[in-house]
Amino acid sequence: MSSKPLLKLESIAEENPHYLDPEEYPGWREHFGNDRPITLEIGFGNGNFLLDMAVRFPEYNYVGMDFYHKGIRRLFTRLQRLGLENIRVAYGDAKEKVPFLFQEGELAEIYINFPDPWPKKRHHKRRLIKPHTVACFREKLAPEGRLRLATDHEPYAMEMLEILNQDSGLRNLHPAPGFTNLREDIPRTKYEKNFLNQGKTIYYLDYVKVPTA
Question: What is the pLDDT of residues 134-157, one digit of tens each?
């Protein structure tokens, strides 16, 4: 990783109150200045989905997490132009930072749109969706909070489905086969639009956290 994009990102971050590179719990209520429900998007890419959600559902606060410098810079530019105050950007790897970035039961929703499938078998260990990460995400969800995923990679979809169905704290919202190929209640990502235009099949997985007694 070169120093040039990092310096650019640091220069933007110094002047941008929407940016965090935390090493401890940041206190989201103080950052947003309210106690609205919080939605997390892991891997927001160019930020289209995050921005569309923040505009469509202003009653929510949004946290986007990524380490793609170019995407972060693009998001900040558009964020400033739109004047949105219900988005924050957390820099870093979700596997490392979600455990301390959010308190138990703090998130209303988590979106993971088109995570890297790491298609080569020797790279499967790098995939985001593993039993321990799912357990972490579920812990951060409020009771009845939702975990929503999308992928165009069928083998990864089937692997995620198996892992998620094994977590007793989550309930699959779709009957057999356990996913849907159509989702119309939320905005579409850039990748999603491109895949659909190419006629590709997309696998949507939706889970809700089971309330404990």
Answer: 999 999 999 999 999 999 999 999
Domain residues of the chain, as ranges? 3-209
User: 113 is written with which tokens?
Assistant: 């749109």
Distances in Å between the alpha carbon of 98 and those of 35, 50, 197? 19, 18, 33
Distance, CA of 42 to CA of 13 (rounded, Å): 19
Asked if residue 103 lies in contact with residue 35, where contact means CB atoms within 8 angstroms, the answer is no
How much is the CA Rg of the chain, to the nearest whole Å?
17
Identify whether the C-beta of residue 40 lies closer than 8 Å to the C-beta of residue 101: no
Q: What are the two backbone dihedrals, phi and then psi, of residue 124, each rounded to the nearest 5 degrees?
A: -55, -30
Please tell me which residue in 35, 52, 116, 185 is annotated as part of the active site. Answer: 116
Answer yes or no: 167 catalytic.
no
The class of domain 3-209 in CATH terms is alpha beta
Buried b (16+ CB within 10 A) or exposed e, 30-48: eebeeebebbbbbbbbbbb
pLDDT at residue 6, rounded to an integer: 47
